[in-house]
Amino acid sequence: MIYTTSIKNITKDQLNGFFVGWPNPPSSEVHLKLLEKSSHVVLAIAQESKQVIGFITANSDDVLSAYIPFLEVLPAYQGQGIGKQLVKEMFNVLSDIYMIDLMCDEDLMGYYEKLGMQQAHGMIRRNYSKQSGL
Fold first, then answer.
1. SS3 for 33?
2. Least CB-packed of 4, 33, 74, 95 within 10 Å?
3. In-domain check, residue 128
4. Does the pLDDT at position 10 exceed 90?
5. Alpha-carbon distance 25 to 41, whole Å?
6. Which domain range does residue 95 map to?
7. 71-125 pLDDT per residue, tens
8. Is there a contact between 20 and 78 (Cβ–Cβ < 8 Å)?
9. In whole angstroms, what is the distance from residue 68 CA to residue 41 CA?
10. Which CATH number belongs to the domain containing residue 41 in this structure?
């Protein structure tokens, strides 16, 4: 397993299988664009196949705040500590930032608490007609 903060040479063909359960998931082309437009990215890449098997993104002002919108690991690789390592790597990237926020479903709060985060209240607005990124 290789963890990298570079998306150089990453292609859409390496980004298949993500966004499981989304009713209108982004295509691999949109996924690549999402990675390119993020302030910070950490990828988990299988050494032999070069397939991206997990990723985390952050958007930041690089002064005080960062927001983590995505952490995903392909279903076949879940439960192996890859997500945990991606979060640790991103926390390392953002180590000089005052606040790192994310929103998650209630059933994932315990996961993030184990990684040093604390519960907070937040608000969201979703435009599901744009979920695919198109």
1. helix
2. 95
3. no
4. yes
5. 19
6. 2-121
7. 999 999 999 999 999 999 999 999 999 999 999 999 999 999 999 999 998 888 9
8. no
9. 10
10. 3.40.630.30
Cα maximum dimension of the chain = 42
Quote the CA–CA distance of 134 and 25 in Å, as a whole number.
Answer: 10
Residue 22 CA neighbour count, 13 Å, CB half: 15
Query: Are 93 and 59 contacting, i.e. CB atoms less than 8 angstroms apart?
Result: no
Q: Is there a domain that residue 126 lies in?
A: no
Q: Is the pLDDT of residue 70 over 90?
A: yes
Q: Structure tokens of 94?
A: 């953002």
Residue 28, token pair as written in the block:
């691999």
Which of helix, strand or coil describes residue 119? coil
18 pLDDT band (50/70/90 cuts)? very high
Distances (CA, A) of 99 to 2, 60, 117: 27, 10, 10
